[in-house]
Design brief:
The protein is of the alpha+beta class. 39% of the residues lie in helices and 31% in strands. It comes from Candidatus Anaerobutyricum stercoripullorum.
Length: 124
């Protein structure tokens, strides 16, 4: 095994750990989360830290048991969403100020990267 194969295997392990962690988090939190409708109050066309070009992100406000919560964090919203649009959000009832979002696309990309790195490591 050469150093290139070793690096590819390390990347594969990290990608598998990332995907597994997100899958585990999804199934662990899924039963505790509650959905509600939130209203978009701010829109950003991309969150450069983690978004693909052209994606749409927004900040929302929502009510839980009569109390209004305002998100500090950008969340993905539909491309056709405008200010005032209702979007579904998920939160933990024990901590309603925190919104949860799971991306199956990120999990699939990480799994695909792991497969490519493993195959690259085998072929090198």
């Amino acid at each position: 095994m050469n150093s290139y194969s070793f690096v590819l295997y390390i990347i594969a392990v990290l990608a598998i750990a990332y995907a597994a962690g997100h899958i585990f988090g999804f199934f662990l939190k899924r039963s505790r989360l509650v959905s509600t409708d939130a209203t978009v109050y701010s829109i950003s066309l991309s969150d450069t830290k983690r978004a693909r070009a052209g994606s749409k992100w927004g900040k929302v406000e929502y009510k839980v048991k009569g109390r209004k919560y305002v998100s500090d964090e950008l969340i993905p919203i539909p491309q056709d969403a405008q200010i005032g649009t209702k979007v579904p959000v998920q939160y933990d009832p024990s901590s309603p100020e925190t919104l949860y979002h799971f991306s199956w696309t990120q999990i699939l990309v990480a799994a695909g990267l792991a497969v490519i790195c493993i195959l690259g490591g085998i072929l090198l």
